Amino acid sequence: MLDSQFSRIFALSTSPKLGGKHFTSDSFLTFITSLSNLRNLKYLFLSLNPLNGMLPVSVGNLSTSLIKFSARSCKIKGQLPNEVGNLSNLLFLDLSRNNLVGSIPTSIGNLRNLQRFNLSNNILTGFIGDNICKLRHLAEIYLGQNQFSGSIPNCLGNVTSLREIHFGSNKLSSNIPTSFGNLKDLVVLDLSSNNMVGSLPPEIGNLKAVTRMDLSMNQFSNRIPREIGGLQNLEHLSLQHNNLQGSILESMSNIVGLEFLDLSHNNISGIIPMSLEKLHYLKYFNVSNNKLYGEIPSGGPFKNLSSKFFIHNEAFCGSSRFSVPPCPTSSKHRSNRKKSLLLFLLLGIALLFVPITYVSIWIRYRRGKRAPQQANSLSTVERERISYYELLQPTDALSDSNLIGFGGFGSVYKGVLRSGTVIAVKVFNLQTEAAFKSFDTECEVLRSLRHKNLVKVITSCSNLDFKALVLEYMPNGSLEKCLYSHNYFLDFRQRVSIMIDVVCALEYLHHGCSLPVIHCDLKPSNVLLDEDMVAHLSDFGISKLLGEDESDLYTTTLATFGYIAPEYGMDGLLSIKCGVYSYGIMLLETFTRRKPNEFEGDLSLKQWVIYSLPKAVMDVVDANLVTPMDNRLQKDLDVVASIMKVALDCCAESPARRTNMKDVAGILQKIKIQLLAG
After folding, report:
1. Which of 115, 253, 535, 639 has the most other CB atoms within 10 Å of its CB?
2. Which residues are annotated as a binding site?
3. Which CATH superfamily is domain 388-472 in?
4. Which of the following is catalytic: 190, 262, 521, 539?
5. Omega before 628 cis (within 30°)?
6. What CATH number is given for 1-124 in this structure?
7. Average pLDDT over residues 279-302
8. Is 396 a catalytic residue?
9. Residues near 628 by Cβ (< 8 Å), separated by ≥ 6?
């Protein structure tokens, strides 16, 4: 008999033998059938074994407890059987690098919990189909290197949990669905080597989290949308071998982290903007085979680029290093009569309108100075209040290219002061009364708070038409971004350290202030990380202060669904125990990598974890944190079990039974020491 742990995990070593021979189709069928007796089987790993058979229909008889099934590079033939849809609890399915043929079975839509779906490098054909859109928890989909045709389902843009889409090297046609603009957490988009047509939709600019975008080897036409310049996290952009026209966008210089940009083999015209010299991380820049002309920039990253990246264009000039003629200088010193007349005309217009503009600005400035200011000024500021006009320059007039976040009460922009200090400017949307209250609340709450794990307010800006807070910039973004983005990975120690930072901030708010502060909207997107990955709690827009004689209060203000304590959501009763509850939910999310609002029906994140403890910790822990074959597996699972218990103690139904932040901090500190000791 297999022991209970092994009956849950089955892994076949590379190059297996069965009776002295490799698996045949019949032996593969017998083998899969025998596994159906393991009713508790949860993990089935067969990758890198020459199974050489068809995937039998009996695969549908495997345990409904199965959550991970990997058979990569096994030389599996034939069609993917419809019965695979019976594996209703599957989270991970990898059948890549095989010889599968036919289409994706419609039953795939039954795998409602599926998070990772990989059928890449097969010989699959047909349409992708709308059934894929039923996978509401899907995070990563790999269908590249097949022969799929037709269009990408428009409904795929409604699967907002998606973080990676890999559809490269197929025969897909039609446009990019505009619904892709809904995929706010998408990190990778690969549609390369297809037959896709039409314009790149402006909605592509909504993909603020994307780091890699490969749309090369298609038939896209018209201009590159200007919205692409607002993708601040973009590192790799390939648009080569299309029919794109227009010019290279000046706004691309705002994509400060860009490392790879390929625009070669298109019909792009005009000049290369000199502002691209600001892209200090740019290592690859190819614009060959276009219709460009003018001077090739020579500063910044262009100092190290090869001349072959600029060949076959209209008329480049510049440094001899690029094998182009020098740019003419005489034109800078000559002017014909038409140019002289035009210059005098423009000068006359300037002389007329500049004084008018100056007077208008002066009048507006005077009005702004006379506008009533907030009664309470922030004592945490490092300088006097900043004016509206002083904020315009560091944020490029609050342009979309500097937008780094947005919420219900406003937007956040990145800026750089003259001193070189990087700032975050939180601008409140004054179209709603709630935004006015949110600004007032943050000013009232933050004026007396000082703690290393709270986001620091540098200054504020307030007049009748405009209200903003200038905050310390957090270069590593939010905990939510680091948890769910492809380009980031938080290990055990980092996650524990971050949650210790948050608990320290909450302990200060609940017990270290003259009046207790309840944050009211505790969630990963409001936990920001500095350059050293130290966590800082932010966004006090709906927080509440408890009076001297109050232990709780009633409110009609509601926070984010999934993190709200029962008494807060149902009765509006608010106390520091509500913050403890929200912290517990966030602690569960940090180590499961599952959002509390992604569960259907009556199931919640808390219940899902309760059902799996104490024996099935492996089922709920983030798969990126543990490896089934690791010799540290049991130690890691014990650590996770301890953390889950702390989290569940925090989010007990009864407020009286919830633990306090000081005890939580002590337990997590011990766990951190245990991890450091190895």
Report:
1. 535
2. 437
3. Phosphorylase Kinase; domain 1 (3.30.200.20)
4. 521
5. no
6. 3.80.10.10
7. 91
8. no
9. 9, 11, 43, 45, 618
